[in-house]
Design brief:
The complex is a heterotrimer. By secondary structure, chain A is α/β, with parallel strands linked by helices. Chain A has 24 helices and 16 strands. Among the domains of chain B are: 43-106, Orthogonal Bundle (3-methyladenine DNA Glycosylase II, Chain A, domain 3); 111-172, Alpha-Beta Plaits, CATH 3.30.70.20. Chain B starts with a helix and ends in a 21-residue tail after the last strand. Chain B is mainly alpha-helical. The longest helix of chain B is centred in the N-terminal third of the chain and has 34 residues, at 2-35. In chain B, the strands form 2 sheets. In chain B, strands 1-4 form a two-stranded antiparallel ribbon. In chain B, strands 2-3 form a two-stranded antiparallel sheet. By secondary structure, chain C is mostly helical. Chain C folds into 2 domains: 17-190, no CATH class; 233-344, no CATH class. Chain C contains 19 helices and no strands. In chain C, helix 1 packs parallel to helix 5 (82-93), helix 1 (17-27) packs antiparallel against helix 13 (224-240) and helix 3 packs antiparallel against helix 5 (82-93). The longest helix of chain C has 24 residues, at 42-65.
Chain lengths: 729, 192, 364
């Protein structure tokens, strides 16, 4: 291990495979200071700007927020949650919380908080901590967590998780390589704020207690290197490692290989090797958060490209729309319009978030700056031609030569096009870091990385689908087993009960006779109750009948319908009977089971025999009083709900009936559907009547519903009659 | 005569040698086929693996496994609507038959969906719970039901039994998590 | 205004496949010049014929393959240089005075069968030029072995007109046939140095004695040595331009050198010297222009070294023991066949994967 440090001290580094040297183009912005921008008119803050889960909203529309005020928060207070809060970058009013296009290659929308700055830029109360050394480890991590810091190099991994590591850390690597062309944000940040960055590194050193701190920086930033070397001169632990410029040195795995000679095994995080890497801008943000109590609300963004008159690094508040940045840096639209007259092809505007190698095209310039935005690139037509000249791969192998992951891009490409996921896995597609070196050198101009991304997304989706289907399968199987078990249980229970009954019958013991007589008594009582109920409310029934019959007559009903109504009435009767019985049953219930009063009830049955026969239609229903009773009690206690349910059912039934009737008409085949319609009508009537009994207040409404239903029925009947007539004719 | 005998001996020798060799190789092959037998899943299992496990029954069988069984017994391979053309292709590959277009009777939009219960309308009848093949609906009698999105396979078997039509099939939204890098369909905002 | 959406990386090197092909074509110029200087106009005429035929064939096939709406892609594909390069290589490798239809058939076969029927640019398993050459050699052995002696050994003054006449009619303006042209000043029918050596060895002469043959001249063969030298020059130019990778030419020449050195050390009487092998036949052309064809070769560096070494061994074996005097075409085709296999076994170890699993490589 000492030898590694010795090597580094001598300035000898390892190499990673491949790599390219694209034109740097850093001269556009590297000699201009970081500019402070005036407040934009609107800030758009996506609530998720990092890897992990979005926090919960703490503000609502119309709220006034102060600069630095926290806007989202994790439900769980733990430091381990993958939630990173978002803060108000300036004071103002929350004007909207809605979906808006976010900084993502897909151009999809996500929930964003819109803030209209009030121009005062008023801070919330801050506690500046002059001696961060005095803070405990937990306090520091807490501060980092609540400051909402996520990795600022591009991936946006929550920093508080990365710094909250207990195992021994060998190397803390500070990534200042900034290997992408055009970008100079870190370069300028180092040159202007090296003291704060060093504070940040010191805080990290306290948290992680690494044996060595290596700052990896490419040799194309001589001023920054000098500043860093001066700033770190008195800390022997920190080594500023000046690396040869080669893309993608700034990739995590590549930088680790260059500095330590170790390869991070596939699927393993560097932490396992005792290595933690932090971006240099993140160090700055950590110092800002811990010492100055300033959450992450702004960052340095390189606004570059030859389509801008004044490319420059700017301090951009998070949430600043890109069009504001472009405007501030004098985006030329005139150059385009001149060409547009000649051909429409050139009318396209190309704005890239991130560098030219790994950045993504924006679909609109309303996209806001987020925590991972290190560059906004507005290239001119000549700089980055916007056309696709893809031709077939000629297997020249240049891609394999430059691949830093030592993959075989051309073979991956074929398999990706053929959707051969098995082969892709074998070729280690997952190890592709999407650096774009292969596509950069490809003489056939094949957008290789794009194919890999599609393939990766497909494989991910397939994997998810596979897991889902596996889950569905097990659940389905489990359900089947459950149903089977239930059925079996039911059967055995029934069988047992039947056996027990039989046995008792056969034994003819006093208990058996008791049980027998109890059953008989219950049956008799039920009959009696029914009969009584029927005789108790004949008038109401008759009136009901009369109105119904009148309706039917008016509509020139057929006997079928009459029968249906009769049936419906019978049902109603039954319902009433059981309802009236309920009041009795409530008092009788305990005695009923004991089966003490069979004799007293029998005469009643005999006297009201005639009425009982009238109510025969309802016998089946009434013979199961126990099942009816709970229903009724629910009715009583929960009238309103029941009503609603009944209404909903009625509504649905009416819908269904109507559909069926329509079907009838169109198909001209009446028999079966008609029957169905009938039954549904019966049910409807039943439902409507059940309602009536329960609630007098609603009586009117129900009456109206019944009338409506009847009218509909009548109408349908009429139509049917007509149809029948037509058919007869 | 001598030449004839010599020839005959030669011929017999040749037959004997060839016969011996064929016996030897036959025995070798037989041994190898027993010794190095490749254990493979039964066909039904493999087919079941390919099916999407929505258990929707659109193929006319009560679940994916029964359909896999049926396909193994010669049923048409083009009846799985949720699986769509991809699944048909895979089954065709496995069965070594021609790829067929999806059965016309099943020509449905097979974009991924999940069921959603409109809670205000739910009457708590439990009919959908009984219909759900994967127990993805939560609820009790007279209580409002709800669907566990993560468990829902989008089979839409619960839609039909609902007496109040309160179940909707809603398409799964495209998010940044499941986006397929379809650059050509990004809604580009026209500025002027 | 609309926004342009593209996938990263957004910038590219400006080199294109067509530029690469053009560079390779330019690099053949020194060799062609040497050929012209020592063997006359014949090959130039064949190159012209082959280019014309190849372009016509390419256009026909592409028109059949692509819908008419893709006119611009057809145009782009025709002039991507790959067809022209194939035609140039066929023209160079034919005997200078072969009849005109040889190059026409060769070019059509190369483009239509070997390239387009396999799927077009990037999909051909075999090098089109060499496949066509082998096809011609097998189908028309007489025409394909009627090598003319270098101009300085010829009885006749073979100008441009005569070359055209011989190629198109079979006779010069004075009425001499190709057979007559092949007879040298001393009245012997001439062959290539490799041919001569092979024939001499079969009749019992030693290599040393064979070297006295007029065709061989002072070094390794009149004209041939210079031609190979010129192709070597062109190849070095390509290496300098990074148009081709050093691995294949290096391993090919090295393995040929080693093979011939071993044989020469063991039995100098029956084996030609290393330099004789290097500077005869299509050795340099093969090393720098044919084996380096990326489409039909191996891809990884390790694979390319294996590929080149295999080709070198095959060339030596066929030259020494085979029925044909030169062997570049055959060994190229054999190596083309082995290409995918070589690729399979020379996959580089991916970053972060410590031990390459051998079993995954073999069960494909």
């Amino acid at each position: 291990m000492e030898s590694i440090i010795n090597r580094i001290t001598r300035g000898h580094f390892w190499h990673f495979h491949g790599g390219i040297h694209p034109p740097q183009q850093k001269f556009l912005t590297k000699d201009k200071p970081i500019r402070n921008l005036p407040l934009p008119e609107q800030l758009i803050l996506p609530i998720q700007q990092h890897i992990g889960q979005p926090g919960d909203l703490l503000v609502s529309v119309g709220d006034r927020v102060l600069k630095g005020q926290v806007l989202t928060k994790s439900k769980k207070p733990t430091n381990q949650s993958m939630v990173v809060p978002v803060h108000a970058p300036t004071s103002g009013i929350v004007t909207a919380i809605k979906n808006s296009v976010i900084a993502h290659p897909s151009g999809l929308s996500s929930l964003c908080i819109f803030i209209e700055p009030d121009g005062e830029d008023k801070w919330q109360e801050r506690n500046i901590c002059e001696y961060p050394e005095l803070l405990t480890r937990e306090q520091v991590i807490d501060k980092i967590t609540s400051a909402g810091i996520a990795g600022m190099g591009g991936a946006g991994f929550p920093t508080h998780i990365k710094v909250n590591i207990q195992p021994e850390i060998n190397y803390l690597i500070i990534n200042a390589a900034e290997c992408e062309p055009y970008i100079t944000a870190d370069d300028l940040l180092i040159r202007e704020h090296s003291a704060t960055i060093l504070d940040g590194i010191n805080i990290l050193e306290r948290l992680l207690t690494p044996h060595h701190i290596l700052i990896g920086i490419e040799d194309n930033k001589p001023e920054a290197i000098k500043v860093l070397q001066q700033a770190t001169a008195d800390n022997p632990k920190i080594k500023v490692c000046v690396l040869p410029t080669k893309y993608p040195t700034g990739g995590e795995k590549q930088l680790i290989q260059v500095l330590t000679g170790q390869e991070v095994p596939s699927g393993v995080i560097p932490r396992k090797l005792g290595i933690v890497m932090q971006n240099i801008a993140t160090c700055f943000a950590i110092a800002d958060a811990v010492i100055f109590d300033t959450p992450l609300i702004r960052r340095v963004v390189t606004v570059s490209g030859q389509a801008l008159d004044k490319p420059q690094n700017v301090w951009a508040l998070l949430g600043t729309p890109i069009n504001y940045l472009l405007e501030q840096c004098h985006y030329q639209n005139t150059g385009d319009t001149g060409q547009r007259n000649k051909s429409n092809v050139n009318a396209n505007k190309h704005v890239i978030m991130g560098g030219p190698m790994m950045g993504f095209s924006l679909s609109t310039d309303q996209v806001p700056v987020v925590k991972i935005t290190n560059c906004v690139l507005a290239p001119s037509k000549d700089e980055i031609p916007a056309d696709n000249k893809e031709v077939e791969c000629i297997r020249c192998g240049q891609c394999a030569e430059v691949c830093p992951a030592q993959l075989l891009p051309q073979e991956l490409q074929w398999s990706a096009k053929a959707k051969d996921h098995q082969q892709l896995t074998k070729l280690n597609l997952a190890d592709c870091i999407e650096c774009g070196a292969c596509a950069y050198v490809c003489p056939s101009q094949i957008p290789l990385v794009h194919y890999y991304r599609i393939a990766k997304a497909e494989m991910r989706e397939q994997h998810v689908l596979h897991l889902q289907s596996e889950k569905a399968k097990t659940r389905f199987e489990a359900r089947k087993v459950r149903l089977e078990k239930e059925k079996l249980a039911r059967e055995t229970k029934q069988k047992k009960a039947a056996d027990a009954r039989k046995a008792k019958m056969a034994e003819n013991t006093p208990e058996a006779s008791n049980a027998k007589s109890a059953v008989a008594a219950a049956l008799a009582r039920v009959k009696a109750k029914k009969a009584k109920a029927a005789s108790l409310q004949p008038e109401e029934k008759l009136a009901e009948k009369a109105t119904l019959e009148k309706d039917e007559l008016q509509a020139d009903k057929k006997s079928q319908v009459a029968a249906a109504i009769a049936r419906a009435k019978a049902k109603k009767l039954a319902a009433k009977a059981s309802a009236s019985k309920l009041s009795d049953a409530e008092t009788e219930a305990p005695t009923e089971t004991s089966g003490e009063k069979p004799e007293t009830d029998t005469p009643k049955v005999k006297t009201s025999e005639t009425e009982a026969s009238q109510a025969k239609a309802s016998q089946t229903k009434a013979s199961q009083p126990k099942e009816v009773i709970p229903k009724e009690s629910v009715h009583k206690t929960n009238n309103y709900k029941k009503l609603k349910i009944a209404a909903a059912i009625a509504k649905a039934k009416a819908k269904k009936a109507q559909k069926l009737a329509e079907q009838n008409q169109s198909e001209n085949s009446d028999e079966l559907p008609q029957n169905k319609a009938e039954t549904s009508l019966n049910e409807k009537a039943e439902a409507a009547q059940a309602k009536k009994i329960k609630d007098d207040e609603k009586a009117k409404r129900i009456a109206a519903a019944v009338a409506k239903a009847k009218a509909a029925k009548a109408k349908r009947q009429e139509q049917q009659n007509k149809q029948n007539q037509q058919e007869a004719e | 005569m001598e030449t004839f005998v010599a020839n005959l001996t030669f011929a017999l020798l040749a037959i004997a040698v060839l016969g011996g060799m064929s016996l030897l190789f036959g025995a070798l092959l037989g041994y190898a086929s027993v010794k190095f037998k490749v254990e493979s899943d039964p066909l039904v299992e493999q087919l079941d693996q390919l099916l999407p496990q929505t258990q929707c029954g659109q193929c006319g069988y009560p679940g994916c496994k029964p359909y896999a069984q049926a396909v193994a017994n010669g049923e048409a391979i083009n009846k799985c609507a949720p699986g769509g053309d991809d699944t048909i292709k895979k089954i065709a590959e496995l069965m070594g038959v021609e790829v067929e277009p999806l059965d016309e009777n099943h020509e449905v939009d097979n974009s991924p969906k999940v069921a959603f219960i409109i809670e205000e309308d739910c009457i708590g009848c439990t009919k959908c719970i009984q219909a759900c093949p994967v127990d993805a609906i939560l609820g009790a009698a007279k209580q409002m039901h709800t669907i566990i999105i993560d468990e829902c396979t989008g089979c839409d078997l619960c839609v039909e039994p609902c007496p109040v039509d309160c179940i909707e099939m809603i398409p799964i939204e495209k998010t940044t998590q499941n986006w397929q890098w379809d650059l050509n369909n990004i809604p580009v905002v026209q500025v002027d | 205004m609309a926004f342009w959406i593209a996938s990263s990386p957004h910038n590219h090197t400006q080199n294109e496949t067509s530029a690469l092909m053009r560079l390779v074509i330019y690099a053949t110029i020194p060799g062609i010049f040497a050929q012209w200087y020592f063997f006359g106009w014949g090959n130039l005429i064949h190159i012209a014929l082959a280019i014309t035929t190849a372009i016509v064939a390419e256009f026909t096939v592409l028109s059949l393959r692509e819908s008419p709406s893709h006119q611009h892609t057809i145009k782009k594909q025709i002039f991507d240089g790959s067809a022209v390069l194939t035609a140039v290589l066929i023209g160079i490798s034919l005997p200078a005075l072969a009849p005109w239809w040889i190059s026409v058939i060769g070019a059509v076969f190369a483009i239509v069968v070997v390239k387009q029927l396999y799927g077009g640019l990037g999909y051909n398993l075999f090098n089109p030029a060499m496949a066509a050459y082998v096809m011609l050699l097998i189908s028309f052995p007489l025409q394909m072995t009627s090598w003319q002696p270098p101009l300085e050994l010829m009885n006749f003054d073979l100008g441009f007109t005569n070359s055209v006449y011989v190629i198109f009619t079979g006779f010069t303006t004075e009425g001499f046939s190709i057979e007559q042209l092949r007879v040298n000043v001393d009245g012997f029918t001439m062959a290539t140095p490799l041919d001569t050596l092979k024939t001499n060895l079969t009749v019992g002469l030693t290599v040393g004695e064979s070297m006295n043959n007029p065709v061989i001249g002072e070094n390794f063969g009149i004209g041939w040595e210079w031609m190979n030298g010129a192709f070597l020059l062109g190849g070095l130019f390509l290496l300098a331009k990074k148009a081709i990778h050093w691995s294949i030419p290096f391993s090919f020449l090295a393995s040929l050198f080693i093979c011939s050195l071993i044989a020469f050390t063991i039995s100098p009487d029956s084996s030609a010297s290393t330099m004789f092998h290097w500077f005869n036949g299509a050795c340099m052309l093969g090393a720098f222009f044919i084996l380096t064809d990326p489409v039909s070769g191996a891809t990884s560096i390790k694979g390319r070294i294996v590929f080149g070494a295999l080709a070198g061994i095959l060339v030596y074996i066929i030259r020494k023991f085979g029925g044909y005097p030169d062997a570049v075409a055959f060994s190229v085709l054999l190596c083309n066949m082995a290409g995918p296999l070589i690729d399979q076994y020379t996959r580089p170890r991916t970053y972060g994967h410590q031990v390459q699993n051998k079993s995954t490589g073999s069960n494909k």
